[in-house]
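Here comes a specimen:
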Amino acid sequence: MRALIACVIGAIIYRLAIAFALNADFLGLQAQDLNLITAVLVTLAIVLPGVRTSVIGKLTRNKA
């Protein structure tokens, strides 16, 4: 159940980030930049869980 909720929340955040990036005039992004935005978001989604696990592991090892 937790994975399902995480998936739904992730999809909503993804859509909001894409909409924000395309509607943010101060960023100067155009519709053609959608591939770059998507690549950055997917990379973050792949990398962040590993970084989180690594940081938590280091913190718990330091306390021991």
